[in-house]
Amino acid sequence: MAHNSLDAFTAAIRSAWGPISSELVTMCRLRLEELVRADPAEDWLASLLAERPASRQLHRDPSGFMLLAHNENEGLFRPPHDHGRAWVVYGVQSGELELRTYARVQAAGAEDRLVLRDTSLLRAGEAKAFLPGDIHDTRCPTENALLFRFTERDLRHEDQVEHKLSRFVEQDGYWTAPRP
After folding, report:
1. Are 135 and 56 in contact (CB under 8 A)?
2. pLDDT tens per residue across span 22-34
3. 5-176 belongs to which CATH class?
């Protein structure tokens, strides 16, 4: 039985967990939207809001999914990247998060470049999903923001051990894959 909204979130995800599907991603996004609207007086959330840690793991499930909290300050920019084989859902508890999405294209005789697809602003109480291979960047436009990041697997392992994440760099005015 759930004791708070965080427990209810993890129990709901665990009960529906399985291979990626439209239904699972939508359910996780909707559940994360509920979680970011939790009562700030709940102990776990009150602690996050008081301490504002740069990053804190809130849950690691034996089935693989994880929930992390990140406090971001105004101007913090995370350059374009994907999450490799993983899918993720970002949720904003307080503040705002600007998200830009990209497509990777190859111009005739040129290196692959990123082309800006869309810019959106994620506000408190909202969540957005990114599927495997989706390329995006993030920027905090408010004084600070508390974000929740739900991942279907451990992204640190995906990045540092498996080397499956792509990170892009700006070269000659374009975002592109780093040169070896």
Report:
1. no
2. 999 999 999 999 9
3. mainly beta
| Residues 6 or more apart in contact with residue 88 via CB below 8 angstroms | 129, 130, 149, 150, 151, 152, 155
**Rounded (10°) CA dihedral 160, 135, 75, 161:** 0
Rg of the chain, C-alpha, whole Å: 17
| Helices 5-16 & 22-36 angle (0-180, nearest 10) | 180
Quote the CA–CA distance of 135 and 114 in Å, as a whole number.
9
Q: Domain-by-domain residue ranges, the chain?
A: 5-176
Backbone φ/ψ region at 14: left (φ over 0), alpha (ψ -120 to 50), beta? alpha
* Mean pLDDT score, 139-145: 97
Judge contact between 58 and 44, C-beta under 8 A: yes
**Which amino acid is residue 71, in one-letter code?**
N
Give the model's pLDDT for residue 2. 57
Tokens 């993890």 sit at which residue? Answer: 10
Q: What's the rounded mean pLDDT across residues 149-165?
A: 79
Instruction: Look up the pTM and report it.
Output: 0.90
